[in-house]
TrEMBL record:
Taxonomic classification: Eukaryota, Metazoa, Ecdysozoa, Arthropoda, Hexapoda
Family: Belongs to the TFB4 family.
Name this polypeptide is given: General transcription factor IIH subunit 3
Record's GO cellular component terms: transcription factor TFIIH core complex; transcription factor TFIIH holo complex
Gene name as annotated: LOC106116192
Gene Ontology MF term list: zinc ion binding
Entry-linked InterPro entries: TFIIH_Tfb4/GTF2H3, vWFA_dom_sf
Organism: Papilio xuthus
Domain of life: Eukaryota
Function: Component of the general transcription and DNA repair factor IIH (TFIIH) core complex, which is involved in general and transcription-coupled nucleotide excision repair (NER) of damaged DNA and, when complexed to CAK, in RNA transcription by RNA polymerase II. In NER, TFIIH acts by opening DNA around the lesion to allow the excision of the damaged oligonucleotide and its replacement by a new DNA fragment. In transcription, TFIIH has an essential role in transcription initiation.
Assembly notes: Part of a TFIID-containing RNA polymerase II pre-initiation complex that is composed of TBP and at least GTF2A1, GTF2A2, GTF2E1, GTF2E2, GTF2F1, GTF2H2, GTF2H3, GTF2H4, GTF2H5, GTF2B, TCEA1, ERCC2, ERCC3, TAF1, TAF2, TAF3, TAF4, TAF5, TAF6, TAF7, TAF8, TAF9, TAF10, TAF11, TAF12 and TAF13. Component of the 7-subunit TFIIH core complex composed of XPB/ERCC3, XPD/ERCC2, GTF2H1, GTF2H2, GTF2H3, GTF2H4 and GTF2H5, which is active in NER.
Length: 295
């Protein structure tokens, strides 16, 4: 039931949305004002509930991405919380909100206090999302048309250190017909923009965090089959520069191994990836000029 469950000719019976929320305290908007994270999280939860409200068969998954690990925030791996109706709110919406906030607190508390926050493990969170989508597809009712997509909400900077992992995840998502959408809260992210372009998703850099919920509902709530009928932000120019395997820096011109296609910024006689030894030839011989015959 792998790749054929999504029908591109019309709307699907069910839509599976996996949201990856970057909770790394190293993000600039969090370091400037930690309370902003609460507002962003409330916007993501409202967006998630809006997705569930569209169709009764819609499914949701939320993954929290930190600098030391990524973890499922919803659904809870264990027994679901026992929630009751509050002020007429739908029980499922209450369950989503309480489960995400409770598990996010546990994720933040589990971070090593002695370690300095590093980069967010977004590539690993994407791999977890693809595994979750694959499992939900296997468990789906036979004949059910299910569309799947991933939304990344992050304010972290672009990093080339995870370039290989990113590329593996992007092309796996493309093969599984999973769209990857990216909502950047701070800086332009060229690598994640490549993933959006490869999988057919949307990329948006939010100009203001105050209107985050409006941007989420306007741009990322519609399914893939509905987006062609709407006026949405264009893809723009995508930066397809590759990152070198030695220093993880984006390159315009570099050296490529002819065996494993690894990219390097400087020439090396031995490929550090596949250990192929290249023969270094001497300078090319200069052909003697032909003397013109005098007539």
């Amino acid at each position: 039931m792998g790749d054929k469950m999504q029908d591109d000719d019309g709307p699907s019976d069910s839509s599976l949305l996996v949201i990856i929320v970057d909770t790394n305290p190293n993000q600039r908007y969090i370091t400037e004002d930690p309370k902003v994270l609460t507002g962003c999280l409330d916007a993501v939860i409202a967006f998630a509930n809006s997705h569930l409200m569209q169709k009764s068969r819609n499914l949701l998954g939320v993954i929290g991405c930190h600098f030391h690990k990524s973890e499922y925030l919803y659904p809870s791996p264990g027994k679901p919380l026992d929630v009751r109706q509050i002020d007429g709110q739908y029980e499922l919406f209450t369950l989503v909100e309480k489960t995400i906030k409770m598990r996010l607190v546990n994720l933040i508390k589990s971070q090593p206090q002695e370690d300095k926050p590093g980069e967010s493990l977004l590539a690993g969170a994407l791999a977890m999302a693809l595994c979750f989508i694959s499992r939900m597809r296997r468990e789906a009712t036979p004949g059910l048309r299910m569309s799947s997509r991933i939304l990344i909400v992050t304010g972290s900077s672009d990093t080339a250190a995870q370039y290989i992992n990113y590329m593996n995840v992007f092309f796996t998502a493309q093969k599984q017909q999973v769209l990857i959408d990216v909502c950047s809260l701070d800086k332009h992210l060229s690598l994640l923009q490549q993933g959006c372009d490869i999988t057919g998703g949307l990329y948006l850099k939010v100009p203001s965090l105050e209107g985050l919920l409006q941007y989420l509902l306007w741009v990322f709530l519609p399914e893939a089959s509905e987006r062609n009928e709407l006026v949405l932000p264009g893809r723009g120019r995508v930066d397809y520069r590759a990152a070198c395997f030695c220093h993880r820096e984006l390159l315009t011109i570099g050296y490529v191994c002819s065996v494993c296609l690894s990219v390097f910024c400087k020439f090396s006689p031995i490929c550090t990836t596949c250990h192929t030894v290249f023969k270094i030839g001497g300078p090319l011989p200069i052909k003697p000029k032909k003397k013109k015959m005098k007539v």
